[in-house]
Specification:
Distance between the termini of chain B: 53 Å
Strand content of chain A: 5-15%
Helix content of chain B: over 70%
Shape of chain B: globular
Strand order of the largest sheet of chain A: 6-5-7-8-9-12-13
Largest interface: A-B, 44 and 48 residues
Number of strands of chain A: 13
CATH superfamily of the largest domain in chain A: Response regulator
CATH architecture of the largest domain in chain A: 3-Layer(aba) Sandwich
Order of helices and strands of chain B: HHHHHHHHHHHH
Structural class of chain A: alpha/beta
Oligomer: heterodimer
Strand content of chain B: under 5%
Shape of chain A: globular
Radius of gyration of chain B: 20 Å
Largest sheet of chain A: 7 strands, mixed
Distance between the termini of chain A: 62 Å
Number of domains of chain A: 2
Helix content of chain A: 40-55%
Largest sheet of chain B: none
Number of strands of chain B: 0
Number of helices of chain A: 16
Number of helices of chain B: 12
CATH topology of the largest domain in chain A: Rossmann fold
Structural class of chain B: mainly alpha
Chain lengths: ~450, ~300
């Protein structure tokens, strides 16, 4: 055999060994596609949430060697919070990894709507934690969509409960006036019917005042607030609309202690720009802020000390958005564990198996304690019919420097919300000719 | 009546805030006939650079000078790389170039200083003046009055600069005709560099004022949206026009939102100024103070 032939054969053997080891490595890796946004108007939120999420997955790899030995791998695709790019990212990511993308979490209601039909066709579960389509909580109609932890409708009822508590009881809401300052978009308008239903139920008056995108000028809206003299203001904002609203409230002398924001109004990014005016502002959240939770300390110990952390600005570790990313990580990893418990420990889960994992996910307080996340996020129990799984939020107040937890977990008014979810989902099923699943037959 | 006055005064002062951004557009259009689509991005870049330098421990005035220096460099770079190769190209080509510049400046700002939202405290409280509130019941923000004062100084300085300095006169000559200005020895490149630097300074002032109000964040680029109807109304070539246009737009949008908004579902302050500007275009296309353009046919 000539030298050249020998060399070529050896090279082929070495490269095939590399290829097969790469294939083997990929076969034992769980791929998670991340349609993130780190540039553009919403980069502050995106970089925090995806940073926390990646750090948690890195923690599992570093500390446990993956989920039962299955390493977690991921790839980011920049959406810039743009629907068209979100769909492009969905298509780009769906076939990656040993068994394709195992879950799609776009962190955008618009992208959620854009790929709603696609995920069912491609059998990839879509998890929308704290955003997306509320009626997708009815898993009988939306088997592939999981608006987990809590929906906008649930949190809105929790807000009214909180206001009721502050007033001294739900019966004290009668005769009160609440102004709902909302982002003039589908997201902003989503809670209007629910607030109207609650106003009728408890006897308070609700006035809806829209703010056009982006909301960087709100003087007229807040002069109206001053004219109306409400007892409380609900802030359903997004982005620059939040600090602008807080500052405008200060300008017309409305007390920030009487302003309650949605969780997209309750991050450091919303209060810090408002400066001293934000002191006293309250917001709902399905996760709390703070770096003193064991799970966050674990990340710092096992990820950042090894220089494997994702956050460029380490001061953001423990912020509301960062911790929300950790919640995304916990839910994703626990769903993989749940799926593996049924379909085989140490195996890579495909989309269908992951869907089962999400649908049977149960994170009780004992498990939260084991994860180092007790009080960090609410307990969660998802089922075939209920893809929300919790509905609880805590209320936090900005003290001028940081968020302080004001309450324990406040549950949603499920008696009011669930029938509305089912009614809306049934309407969707009729439009799309979907036969709802019979959950009693689901294993 | 008291409430009407409060809405009106608040609107007029908001209009001054819009004028800050409109001024940047006017300067560049006046000197080069280019509608600079990147003006909003420049406001963002300037404010983010200022806050970024401030975070490094540099004192306020030092940060202001360094941020201005960065804007001068950006202006020189724009002239050298974007504008110089496009001398005598149709205005639409220059406009398209500024669209590209927008994306570059936005990306550059975030690449340099990160995407985090920052607060900015200029030491002026955005709260109503107490004695006025107590005696008249009308709330006028201290910060708004401060902004109005800054605008007055800025406009006076710019008007004097354009009217009474050699560079100012050269700027006006370049605006009238690039080639004619070149033929009589006016250095076009130098003039463009100067005007982009001055526009950069105006962007820095606008960025500081808007950043102190709403935070230094990407949304500063959207301030440009508020400036467009101001420009149509005041005229693309008039510095005082940018102020008067701002006052008209600010006051009418607020009055419309408060008194008409409730009848049409609210949230009309985003589109009402554009409708007004459109109506104005039909009557006076050059704007209130703009130069009437007459073509020989």
């Amino acid at each position: 055999m000539k030298l050249k032939t020998k060399f070529l054969l050896s090279a082929a053997a070495v490269s095939s060994a590399f290829v097969s080891s790469a294939v083997l490595a990929q076969a034992s890796e769980q791929f998670i596609g991340l349609p993130s946004y780190r540039v553009g108007a919403y980069a502050a939120g995106g970089s925090g949430i995806y940073g926390g999420w990646i750090d948690y997955m890195q923690l599992i790899n570093e500390k446990e060697g993956g989920v039962n030995g299955v390493k977690l791998t991921w790839e980011e695709c920049e959406t810039e919070y743009n629907n068209a790019r979100g769909v492009e990212c969905y298509e780009r990511l769906k076939s990656k990894g040993a068994s394709g993308n195992s879950v799609f979490q776009p962190l955008s209601t618009g992208i959620t709507y854009s790929v709603l039909d696609k995920v069912a066709q491609d059998k990839i579960p879509m998890v929308t934690i704290g955003y997306g389509r509320t009626d997708a909580a009815d898993g009988r109609v939306f088997p592939w969509v999981f608006p987990m932890v809590t929906t906008y409708w649930s949190q809105n009822t929790a807000k009214i409960k909180f206001i009721g508590q502050k007033e001294g009881g739900m019966d004290k809401l009668k005769g009160k006036k609440i102004v709902n300052i909302y982002h003039d978009s589908a997201y902003g308008k989503e809670t209007i019917p629910l607030l109207d239903a609650q106003a009728a139920k408890y006897g308070f008056t609700v006035i809806h005042i829209p703010v056009s995108h982006p909301g960087n000028e709100q003087q007229s809206q807040w002069l109206r607030v001053r004219q109306e003299k409400p007892d409380w203001v609900i802030l359903r904002g997004w982005g620059v609309m939040n600090p602008t609203a807080i500052k405008a409230a200060a300008k017309v002398g409305f007390p920030r202690e009487k302003m309650v924001g949605v969780w997209w109004s309750g991050a450091e990014e919303d209060t810090v720009p408002a400066g001293a005016a934000a002191k006293g502002f309250i917001a709902a959240g399905f996760n709390v802020a703070g770096a003193n939770y064991p799970v966050i300390k674990d990340i710092q110990e096992n990820v950042y000390k090894k220089n494997k952390g994702n956050m460029e600005d380490k001061n953001r570790i423990g912020s509301v958005y960062y911790n929300r990313g950790v919640v995304h990580g916990i839910i994703t990893v626990e769903a993989i564990r749940t799926a593996q418990a049924k379909f085989g420990k140490g195996k890579v889960m495909n989309g269908e198996q992951m869907r089962w994992g999400f649908e049977n996910l149960a994170i009780d307080s004992k498990r939260l304690k084991e994860l180092g996340a007790e009080g960090f996020m609410p307990d969660l129990k998802v089922s075939c019919a209920d893809h929300e799984g919790s509905g609880k939020v805590k209320f936090q107040q900005w003290d001028g420097k940081e968020w302080k937890v004001l309450t324990d977990w406040v549950d949603a008014d499920k008696e009011l919300v669930r029938p509305m979810i089912e009614e809306s989902a049934a309407k969707y099923a009729k439009e799309k000719n979907i036969t709802p699943r019979d959950c009693s037959k689901e294993g | 009546m008291q409430f009407f006055l409060e809405v009106l005064i608040g609107g007029l002062l908001s209009g001054v805030m819009y004028s800050f951004v409109a001024l940047g557009f006017v300067l560049i259009y006046k000197a080069s006939g280019v509608f600079n689509f990147a003006q909003g991005a420049m406001v963002f870049f300037a404010a983010l650079t200022f806050v970024g330098i401030l975070e490094m421990g540099v004192p306020f005035w030092g940060a202001l000078i360094l941020a201005f220096g960065a804007m001068v460099l950006l202006g020189i770079g724009t002239e050298r790389i974007v504008l110089r190769p496009m001398v005598n190209q149709p205005p639409i080509a220059l406009f398209m170039a500024t669209i590209g510049l927008t994306f570059f400046v936005e990306g550059l700002a975030q690449a340099m200083w990160g995407a985090s939202v920052r607060g900015l405290d200029l030491g002026i409280q955005d709260e109503p003046i107490e004695w006025m509130m107590e005696t008249t019941g009308i709330g006028v923000s201290k910060f708004d009055l401060f902004a109005a004062g800054v605008a007055a100084v800025l406009v006076t300085a710019l008007a004097l600069f354009f009217q009474y300095t050699r560079v100012g006169r050269a700027l006006r000559a370049v605006a009238d005709d690039h080639q004619a200005a070149l033929s009589i020895g006016i250095p076009l490149q130098t003039i463009w560099r100067i005007v982009w630097a001055v526009a950069g300074f105006v962007a820095l002032v606008a960025g500081l004022i808007w950043g102190a109000r709403n935070g230094v964040q990407f949304a500063l680029v959207f301030t440009a949206l508020k400036a467009l109807p101001v420009l149509i109304l005041g005229g693309f070539t008039s510095v005082p026009g940018a102020i008067v246009g701002g006052l008209i737009i600010g006051s009418t949008e607020k009055l419309a939102e408060v008194y008409l908004g409730a009848y049409v579902g609210g949230g009309i302050d985003s589109w009402f100024p554009y409708v007004m500007a459109l109506a104005f275009l039909l009557v006076r296309p050059e704007g209130l103070f703009g130069e009437k353009h007459i073509d020989r046919v």
